[in-house]
Amino acid sequence: MATYMDVHHGMVGITADQLREAHQADLAIEKDEGVHFERAWADPVSGTVYCLSTGPSPDAVQRIHDRTGHRADEIHEVPLMV
Amino acid sequence: MATYMDVHHGMVGITADQLREAHQADLAIEKDEGVHFERAWADPVSGTVYCLSTGPSPDAVQRIHDRTGHRADEIHEVPLMV
Fold this sequence. Notes:
The structure is a homodimer. By secondary structure, chain A is of the alpha+beta class. The first copy, chain A, has a single domain (2-77), classed as ORF SCO4226, nickel-binding ferredoxin-like monomer (Alpha-Beta Plaits). Chain A has helices spanning 16-29, 58-67; strands spanning 2-8, 36-43, 48-55, 74-77, 80-81. A four-stranded antiparallel β-sheet of chain A has the order 2-3-1-4, with helices on one face. The two termini of chain A are 18 Å apart. The A-B interface holds A 3, 5, 14-16, 19-20, 23, 39-46, 48, 50, 52, 76-82 and B 3, 5, 14-16, 19-20, 23, 39-46, 48, 50, 52, 76-82.
């Protein structure tokens, strides 16, 4: 299992409800890919969303995001953390 | 107080020790600006580092990073989180 930070652009104006609903949609199916979405943060001004997850591969993370309709623009494995 | 995600590019090959030392350097002086650096994650392959912090302004966050020698390339206020 690895840790990933994925980034979504173009989410200008995202609301707290929309972020929560997107996160809940991911959580509802994440087990299909052995992924867990831990936290997410959104900047509605620049339209940037960051999601922290664990899973077996970046493709597994992307498959969940694809199925819930919000494909990530970048997925970075982040093996180092403090 | 607000929450910020700041991003550093160009850190290809960063090691666990370097990330920890950079974070410790920030923690050592963060009170000067009323900032707190909570966590950081690094992808040494793409050279990307994400730092999660709280503070009074993005400029306050940047002043700490400037003094410790690792200016952020982007600082996003992230008022929404799950």
